[in-house]
Amino acid sequence: MKENTYILAIESSCDETAASVVMDGRTVLSNVISSQIALHTLYGGVVPEIASRKHIEKINQVIETALSEAGKTLEDMDAIAVTYGPGLVGALLVGVAEAKAIAYASGKPLVGVHHIEGHIAANFIENKDLEPPFICLVVSGGHTHLVVVKDYGEFEILGRTRDDAAGEAFDKVARAIGLGYPGGPKIDKVSKEGNPNAIVFPKAKVEGAIYDFSFSGLKSSVLNYLNHAKMMGETVNEADLAASFQKAVVDVLVDHAILAAKEYGFDKLAIAGGVASNSCLRAGMAAACEKHGIQFYYPSPIFCTDNAAMIGCAAYYEYKKGVRHGWDLNAVPNLKLGER
Predict the structure, then answer these.
(1) Alpha-carbon torsion (203, 207, 209, 210), positive or negative
(2) Which of 51, 63, 304, 330 could disulfide-link 19, Cβ–Cβ 3.0 to 4.6 Å?
(3) What are the E-state strand segments in the chain?
């Protein structure tokens, strides 16, 4: 019997072309990422058509490097995994077409992976002791979800954002302040020099849905604050504004997650997604978890942002359950968590 299971994973849902070789779901043998941040910074955000073209240019090279760094060949792989949604349709299609072609040519099974499930699975890579069930807060550019991870690939959504995702709010506020793209890391950096209690911004509560989030009102408050200062001829302390905004977002994320863990009786809480690399969120969540006797799990920043290792990890548990996709696998840009 074959001892180890090797999966070649491909991720191309937005502006990172990534490939990884993952062994037994938790051991990353290679994790290659070709980022397009410099390219899209010129436009102040991701341009879908440019992203798709860049994926086509880079994808073969990234896969070859991933196999080479892992010291493996295509023949050693047990399955080919790929993100098929959610994401930018053109970008997703590049990865899906590539994965189908490789799987078909090599006679390997194809496993399609939900991008958000990948982010959640990133926690398994470095936390070898983490097993479901646990609570997970998913915070990224397009998603803010609070979920119960009932089992591998099994989720119950407790709350989600009603409007802007947390990462989206970071990007829009960064643009308004004049910090540029990508917003999250820039706000995180400048906030370190500011006073988070300088300005009190509103923290929205969604009536009848205690675990849901809403960030559009907070974003509007920041814009109103900037417009008012401009009309009055007042100078704005960018660091204080960024820190105060960041605190308002983080407080809500932490409060909701801790409340859910206590109400549902979980002593394990994880965070995932691009915004999970935010230093203020990590520190706030760590302090709250320690106070309430909850074990706190989080991936390294490289596994928070889009990468293929997390896709390989999620795919391993799908593969073990017997999940296989046919040649009709297609990109699903608006795929919801829990949908298959």
Answers:
(1) positive
(2) 63
(3) 6-11, 16-23, 27-35, 79-85, 110-114, 134-139, 144-151, 154-160, 268-272, 295-297
Sorted by sequence, the CB contacts under 8 Å of residue 56 that are 6+ apart come out as: 94
18: which residues sit within 8 A by CB, 6+ positions away?
A: 10, 11, 12, 31, 32, 33, 34, 62, 306, 307, 308, 311
Tell me if 153 is assigned to some domain: yes
Whether omega before 132 lies within 30 degrees of 0, making that bond cis, reads no
Judgement on whether residues 202 and 250 belong to the same structural domain of the protein: yes
- What range does the domain containing 312 cover? 6-120+304-320
Could you report the per-residue pLDDT of 161-186, keeping only the tens digit for each?
999 889 889 999 999 999 988 888 99
Query: What tokens were used for 162?
Result: 């009603």
In a shared domain, residues 234 and 176: yes
Looking at the fold, whether 171 and 195 belong to one and the same domain comes out as yes
User: Does the residue 1 lie in any domain?
Assistant: no
